[in-house]
Amino acid sequence: MRAPYMTRLGLAAVLFAAAVAACSGGNDDPPGGDNPPDSGNHDSGTPDAGDSGTPSTPDAGPDAGPDAGEPDAGVDAGTDAGTPDAGLPEGTVTIPNKLSELGLFTGSPATSDFQPVAGNIPYELTTPLFSDYSLKSRTLYVPAGKAAVYSASDVLDLPVGTIITKTFAFPADFREPDKNVRPLETRILVRQPGGWEAYPYVWNDALTEADKAVGGKVFKNFEFIDAQGVAKKFDYLVPQRNQCQKCHHVVDEQDNQQLLPIGVKARYLNRDHVYDGQTLNQLQHLADLGKLTGLPPAIQIPRAPDAFNTAEASLEIRARTYLDINCAHCHNPKAQPGITSRLFLDIKTTDEFSLGHCKRPGSAGNGVGGEFDIVPGDHSTSILWYRMNTEESGKMMPEIGRALRHDAGSQLIADWIDAMTPRTCK
Q1: Of 33, 252, 303, 396, which is least surrounded by CB within 10 A?
Q2: Is the predicted pLDDT of residue 295 greater than 50, yes or no?
Q3: Strand extents, DSSP E, 324-384
Q4: 286: helix, coil or strand?
């Protein structure tokens, strides 16, 4: 378990904070006020399977370390983050200009003690979305007295006031992933009374604070050395706030686009995580804390495999899982790119034509590797593989969120297509 910039906190403090929150009723002091809660929730984490596509690449998440202790007496660490403005709908979270003012974390990467407060719960995904090999640490904050509702297939129904965070970081050299780790940004998704909102925060050069960056930022000529010792240089994009909707959206019955989280689905959360030295199932942990209702028996909960672990599932299922987490937030029947292209890459789709077999794209243009989305038996003439494999702007997929090729992901999809029964597409 490795922790480039987050240290580990104790489960005892989590339970303590939950108990305080349960007893404090509606008079909770919100994090982000004058007296932010002390640390007391964070844990040890295992590497995210699939962030880099190699088993040796770790998560940027928490590592083993001493317990940070219990929250300060009299302060509830499980209350609503942010401060509602007078006159706004009940439950509205005011979004500050500085990440620290949300009250979700203590410390900073500069002092190697950046960690979530009690009630801001770390989690991982069985197969995460690829983002230029960045290491990611994720947290889920559900306000005191509220809980998410379980869904077997869709995003958990998270209550107003929920905040999801994801911090992106890079070590200088992935062969020494615990050293010289540089976080670039922390993105947050906030469930407001009117729906989800997205905000990027960019870490300053001193790594003492992350500032809200509605207009995004480009880290020009950003460099690191990959796990194979190859130097990489690219432009890392922190998306503008309005660009977040390109991936995080669905289209409702009135054809309006609505923002929606991607990874917080039961099948991706159904994995173990280490909390205060105890290995616990993440979903069961949330339920035990009173933060998730409707959880069925473990045998009934779906689980997406680690797409790069051959022992967990067949090639077919692992490839479909990779497409589901990396592509299906756009290519599904309820998202505009899927509606336009009629290419559906979500795990529910079983129709081969909708999956791209011998299907001509609606508007792929020229020079995209072939004529059909998938030519069974031949990845080299399949547009789907070409657009995943290329690094050429305007042709690669996804359109934003990456600048580099995911070598392991590209190879997985190539192997899947080549293993199909060959067909002549006409």
Answers
A1: 252
A2: yes
A3: none
A4: helix
Q: What are the tokens at 75?
A: 């302060």
Find out whether 154 and 329 touch, Cβ atoms under 8 Å: no
Show the tokens assigned to 354.
Answer: 């909708």
Whole-angstrom distance, CA of residue 50 vs CA of residue 412: 11
- Which 8-state DSSP code applies to residue 192? E
Query: Cβ–Cβ contacts within 10 Å for residue 55, how many?
Result: 14
The span from the CA of 29 to the CA of 37, in Å, is 9
Q: Which two tokens stand for residue 334?
A: 């309820």
Least confident of 47-51, 161-165, 177-181: 47-51
**pLDDT per residue as tens digits for the range 197-247:** 999 999 999 999 999 999 889 999 999 999 999 999 999 999 876 755 655
Strands (E), 76-124: 105-106, 115-116, 120-123
Q: Dihedral sign, CA of 261, 147, 63, 39?
A: positive
Residue type for position 328: A
Which of 38-52, 169-183, 353-367, 382-396 comes out lowest in average pLDDT? 38-52
Mean pLDDT of the region 343-355: 90
Residue 54 has pLDDT above 50, yes or no: no
Neighbours of 377 (CB within 10 A): 15
Q: Is residue 2 very low, low, confident or very high in pLDDT (cuts 50, 70, 90)?
A: very low
In sequence order, the β-bridge partners of residue 121 are 140
- 300, two tokens: 């009934």
Nearest to 158 by CA among 127, 129, 195: 195
C-alpha span between 202 and 215 (Å, rounded)? 11
- Alpha-carbon span 245 to 256, nearest angstrom: 12
Q: How far apart are CA 54 and CA 267, in angstroms?
A: 21
Q: Are residues 29 and 168 in the same domain?
A: yes
Structurally, the chain folds into a number of domains equal to 2
Q: Within a domain: residue 327?
A: yes
First-to-final CA distance of the chain: 51
What percent of the chain stands above pLDDT 90?
Answer: 60
- Assess whether 279 and 333 both reside in one domain: no
Closest alpha carbon to 105 in 154, 138, 130, 150: 138
The reply to whether 217 and 278 lie within a common domain is yes
Return the H-helix or E-strand segment holding 217.
strand 217-225
pLDDT in tens, 362-387: 765 566 768 899 999 999 999 999 99
Are 62 and 44 in contact by the 8 Å Cβ rule? The answer is: yes
306, two tokens: 């680690």
Q: For 88-156, where are the E strands, in sequence order?
A: 105-106, 115-116, 120-123, 135-141, 148-149
